[in-house]
Automatic annotation (TrEMBL):
The entry's keywords: Glycoprotein, Membrane, Repeat, Sialic acid, Signal, Transmembrane, Transmembrane helix
Protein name, entry field: Golgi apparatus protein 1
Pfam families according to UniProt: Cys_rich_FGFR (PF00839)
Natural source organism: Clupea harengus (Atlantic herring)
Ranges annotated as spanning the membrane: 1105-1128
Length: 1138
């Protein structure tokens, strides 16, 4: 046994030489053939070792033949030979007979004597020193080519061992055949392998793998013993540490045997017999050698026709390959140069060292590929096959078998084609039951080793589930390209996605998202940025202390930084980070940091939100209720979302039509500006806008209200102003109120320099306009009016400011708190009409036509001036009238009047102001007060001009006079129903009330009508019916007289009294009616004081006549005074003289 000191199988090598040579190398001398035949003969006592001599030999001694001993002539095997090998032409070849008999089917047993004869024959072959000389003759040229073999010491069997080790490099045909045949003989029985029995004796007994004593079980197919040991080896790897296992030297021997049998599946006797029929079924046309049959069987492992015994044997061999890649002949051969070049197998003396593991080889070479370095095509092909193999069968990863056993038993069971692995992924990704951390780690390691992110085809379950989606949605991408996975993510939750593909995709992406390196596109573009900014290491360096997802979080935080904020990512890296962020934002579980921090909050607030992509929406809805850690991470992502709304992929998909129609320019060019969301808000009510898009845009607007940072453009424009003017205020609505109040106060006080910057004021206007569109964007107003909305506006949609408009129209029925808030809103809108969403929407075209050059604050005044134009849109005209009605209810809602009459109001109407309450309308009382003073001609010029406009407008439409409408509601419906129904707005209702003055019973109404008559004396324009009737006469008789202060009315009255002047009949009639009305008014409402009397006189059309008569009376009185004074003076003097 001295020659067996070497672990290498001197074993088989020796035997090989002889056998093949004499059978198939017909070129050797006959003498050499005879020597070979005699070497294997059982009658050669010198060739039988002690163990063989001790065994009973059932074969009768036979005389030695000159032509050599023939196995076919032995009586012990004659019957089996006739039965199993009917082809007698091969009987003259001992090796052919041996091959035929030992390759019999399992259900065909050989006779015991034949078994023993064959075993002794093979044992003699492997232990005879003449093998070496035969090998030197057959493989002469090969030995000279392989320097390592040529240098081996002769006479100890090392030469043949070396040739077996290098059989893959043997090009000489006869030598290759010789070595191959002899290897087949050796592997039929573990006892024929030199040294194997000595190293594994104890383990064979421990594992009950068979007999080690010759004669007890000397069946020639004892490759079963090796299979048993291999099974024990792979089982040991799946057990917890600390359990007694196979000795290290036996492990090495087992792996060495597996390695030596890697090129030809005939050499793995157990697998050969188990898969012989399957080979014929699946791999009939696959030639043996170079591991081709193994690979073919591996590819069909999970086919329905594969036998369980063969499938089990294949799994065992795959597990051995996972422990040592050299057990795969094709992989070791294809990648040998790449491994050496990239220093992936430095410790070649330890076949089971870390460098020998398949996982290490894959990680090392994948790292090379990810860094952009070349790896040969053959090696990449082999890597692809074995990465796919790992993803198909979880049992090939001992760590998963060991640590995920409970999860497999409880949730998954055993499935083929990668389904068990995906089930485990689903369990880890789910929230129903906790998963062992070691199991999660094992799955993460497997995903890194297999690297399906680089080629989706590696994941067979995913490939099969998504085939239809790939063929339709991603057909423009080359098969195997990493962009296929990206394409699938872009179509997540779309009509093209199928449910099974969606589930499989999310299961895989869960693990890819936890290691940024598993996205090859991201790693290629960002490896330098990650090393520079996030301090990462190499692709296959597992020593990084960062938690899952930390590197990507670091990258996306820097992707949106400005130059002022410091280090930024390169353009290519930023593009990739944004791509992935857009895709992963669809599912909270694809953001490891968010899932970890928000696990409790997700369970508490979002357990019922099971719709696709709704978990982030739910967390945003409950932002104020979240824990600090969760609130922080959700807030940061929402802040990024405001800058790049494409992060919300579901919203972008829903809004695709309106983006294409109205926002395609900003969508294509958007770079960290937030323009796209602003465009969507502005076009929220276009015809292309669908319900999903509207809901999504409104939801984001509502989220923005929670923090001003969530409005990117507002944040960038106003951050300095907020820090200076509104510190410690976080909610956007409060910041907007703070800044707008500052702007309002500065405007009212006419300060020279506004405290709020120009760019902030501009953006503030945009934010206020957006808030005015939906009452929910005004939290204070919405909260105070919830009950009122429920009562009066329940069926009114929120958008387009329709709910706000509904509240305005039902203002008198609102609760006090809601009424006050609506009044404040109206006051703000009247100060800046651009904030009146309904007005701006309905009158958009009219503003462009009539008021394009008007200042924003004068927009409503401009529209009022053009209200009665022929080109005015009826809907806009109606909206303008509504706003006029609102303005006339309270002077505070008319900023132009308020400014013009700021001195007159406290001077003449202070008693009304003393009774007024903040945030409640005065129902036109102050304006009515000013109207009376206008009639008395006591107002300042600016105030008089504004009141004249109000009088003229209200004279045409009674609804613009709130006091008249309040006091005369019953009379209008009773006396003027037809005029109201006509809705002509030409002053007919007021004319009706004037004509029916005597029929009015309500004192308040009568007083209002009398006031109208009084006001009409001051200006004929206030009486539209009279003005229309007398328009021609005014032109002819009073053209030179300016309007106002009753001048044109006095002109007409004088013309009426002048018999030389002929007025139009209608004008004459209307004037006579007015005189009668004024007379009645004077009787019905006499002057209450000298001031009223003076006002009556000065406002009278007969003012000149009255003043002249009054002057004559004063003159007469004065003369009488003088006369009476002289008389009294004489009487007094006479009395004194007495």
């Amino acid at each position: 046994m001295a020659a067996c000191r070497r672990v290498h199988p001197l074993w088989l090598l020796l035997s090989l030489c002889i056998c093949v040579y004499f059978v198939q190398a017909g070129k050797t001398q006959v003498g050499a053939n005879e020597n070979v035949d005699n070497i294997g003969s059982p009658q050669n006592p010198g060739a039988v070792p002690a163990a063989a001599n001790a065994a009973p030999v059932a074969v009768a001694a036979q005389p030695r033949r000159s032509t050599g001993w023939k196995l076919a002539e032995e009586e012990a095997c004659r019957e089996d030979l006739l039965r199993l090998c009917p082809n007698k032409h091969s009987w003259s070849n001992n090796l052919a007979v041996l091959e035929c008999l030992q390759d019999h089917k399992e259900d065909t047993e050989l006779a015991p004597d034949c078994n023993h004869l064959l075993w002794n024959y093979k044992l003699n072959l492997t232990t005879d020193a003449k093998f070496e000389s035969v090998a030197m003759e057959v493989c002469k040229s090969t030995i000279s080519e392989i320097k390592e073999c040529a240098q081996e010491e002769k006479g100890k069997g090392y030469l043949v061992s070396c040739l077996v080790d290098h059989r893959g490099n043997i090009s000489e045909h006869h030598c290759s055949q010789y070595i191959t045949k002899m290897t087949t003989i050796i592997f039929s029985d573990y006892r024929l392998i030199c040294g194997f029995m000595d190293k594994c004796r104890d383990d064979i007994n421990t594992l009950h793998c068979g007999s080690i004593n010759t004669g007890e079980k000397d069946v020639h197919s004892q490759g079963e013993v090796i299979a048993c040991l291999e099974k024990g080896l792979v089982t040991e790897a799946e057990q917890a540490a600390g359990q007694t296992g196979i000795k290290e030297e036996c492990k090495k021997a087992i792996m060495r045997v597996a390695e030596l049998s890697s090129d030809d599946f005939h050499l793995d006797r157990h697998l050969y017999f188990a898969c012989r029929d399957d080979r014929e079924h699946f791999c009939e046309n696959t030639a043996a050698g170079e591991g081709r049959v193994y690979k073919c069987l591996f590819n069909h492992k999970f086919e329905d026709g594969m036998s369980e015994k063969c499938r089990d044997s294949l799994s065992t061999r795959q597990k051995l390959i996972a422990q040592d890649y050299k057990v795969s002949y094709s992989l070791a051969k294809a990648c040998r140069a790449d491994l050496r070049k990239n220093r992936c197998n430095q410790d070649t003396n330890m076949p089971r060292a870390r460098e020998a593991k398949l996982s290490y080889l894959l990680l090392c070479l994948e790292s090379v590929l990810h860094r952009g370095r070349p790896v040969s095509g053959d090696c990449q092909g082999e890597m692809l096959d074995y990465r796919r193999m790992l993803m198909e069968d979880y049992s090939l990863s001992p760590e998963i078998v060991l640590h995920c056993r409970g999860e497999i038993d409880s949730h998954c069971g055993l499935h083929h084609k990668g389904r068990t692995l995906h089930c485990l992924m689903r369990v880890v990704r789910g929230d129903k039951a906790p998963v062992d951390s070691l199991c999660q780690k094992a799955l993460q390691s497997l995903v890194q080793e297999a690297d399906p992110g680089a080629d989706y085809r590696i994941d067979r379950a995913l490939n099969e589930a998504c085939e239809s989606v790939i063929q339709t949605a991603c057909k423009h991408i080359r098969n195997g390209d990493p962009m296929v996975l990206s394409c699938l993510m872009e179509h997540l939750y779309t009509e093209k996605m199928v449910e099974d593909c969606e589930v499989r995709l999310l299961e895989l992406q869960y693990f890819i998202s936890r290691d940024w390196k598993l996205d090859p596109l991201l790693y290629r573009k960002c490896q330098n940025d990650a090393a520079r900014i996030c301090h990462t290491h190499g692709w296959n360096d597992t020593s990084e202390p960062m938690p899952p997802g930390a590197v990507f979080s670091c990258l996306y935080r820097h992707a949106y930084r400005t130059e002022e904020q410091g280090r930024r990512l390169s353009r290519d890296c930023r593009t990739e980070v944004q791509r992935i962020l857009h895709q992963r934002a669809l599912d909270v579980k694809l953001d490891p940091d968010m899932q970890r921090r928000c696990m409790t909050d997700l369970g508490k607030w979002c357990s019922e939100r099971t719709e696709s992509g709704q978990e982030l929406v739910c967390l945003q809805d409950h932002l104020d209720d979240l824990g600090p850690d969760c609130k922080d991470v959700v807030g940061n992502l929402t802040e990024l979302e405001s800058e790049d709304i494409q992060i919300d992929a579901l919203l972008i998909r829903a809004c695709e039509p309106v983006i294409q129609s109205h926002c395609h320019d900003v969508a294509d060019n958007q770079i960290e500006t937030g323009d796209l969301m602003e465009c969507l808000v502005l076009n929220k009510h276009q015809k292309e806008m669908n319900e999903k898009c509207t809901v999504g845009v409104t939801h984001f607007q509502l989220i923005q209200m929670k923090d001003f940072r969530f409005s990117y453009k507002f944040k960038m424009a106003c951050k300095e102003d907020v820090l200076k003017l509104c510190p410690n205020i976080k909610k956007k609505v409060d910041v907007v109120i703070c800044l707008s109040t500052t702007v309002r106060n500065d405007t009212l006080q006419d300060v020279k320099e506004q405290r709020v910057s120009v760019k902030c004021r501009r953006q503030l206007k945009v934010e206020e306009l957006e808030m005015s569109e939906d009452i929910r964007l005004e939290p204070d107003l919405f909260d105070n009016c919830k009950n009122d909305i429920r009562k009066m506006c329940q069926n009114v949609p929120y958008g387009n400011a329709q709910v706000i408009e509904c509240l305005k129209e039902n203002k008198k029925q609102l609760s006090q708190r809601c009424h006050q808030k609506v009044f404040k809103l109206q006051e703000t809108e009247m100060m800046d009409p651009e904030l009146d969403f309904q007005l701006m929407r309905v009158c958009k075209q009219m503003i462009r036509r009539f008021c394009a050059e008007s200042d924003a604050k004068n927009m409503l005044q401009c529209l009022i001036q053009n209200k009665n134009g022929e080109l005015m849109d009826p809907k806009c005209k109606q909206m303008i009238t509504k706003r006029q009605i609102t303005q006339n209810t309270d002077y505070r809602l008319n900023p132009v009047l308020r400014k013009a009459c700021k001195a007159d109001i406290p001077k003449f109407c202070q008693n009304i102001l003393n009774k007024a309450k903040d945030d409640n309308e005065l129902e036109g009382q102050v304006i009515s007060c000013l109207k009376l003073k206008y009639a008395d001609q006591r107002l300042s010029p600016d105030c008089e001009d504004q009141i004249r406009v109000i009088l003229q407008e209200s004279a045409l439409d009674y609804r613009l006079d709130p006091q008249l409408q309040v006091q005369c509601t019953e009379e209008i419906s009773r006396l003027c129903a037809e005029e109201v129904a006509a809705q002509e707005q030409t002053g007919q209702v007021e004319e009706c009330l004037k004509s029916n003055l005597l029929k009015i019973k309500h004192d308040g109404c009568k007083k209002e009508v009398l006031n109208i008559l009084k006001e009409s004396k001051a200006d004929i324009f206030v009486d539209p019916v009279l003005h229309t009737a007398c328009a021609l006469d005014i032109k002819h008789q009073c053209a030179s007289i300016p309007p106002g202060r009753g001048r044109q009315m006095s002109c007409l009255m004088e013309a009426l009294q002048d018999k030389r002047v002929r007025l139009q009949p209608e004008c004459k009639k209307r004037l006579q009616d007015r005189i009668d009305m004024w007379s009645y008014a004077a009787k019905a409402a006499p002057a209450e004081g000298f001031a009223d009397l003076a006002g009556e006189v000065f406002s009278s059309p007969a003012k000149n006549y009255l003043l002249s008569m009054l002057g004559m009376a004063f003159t007469l009185l004065f003369l009488m005074g003088l006369l009476c004074g002289r008389i009294t003076k004489r009487v007094t003097q006479q009395l004194k003289d007495r």
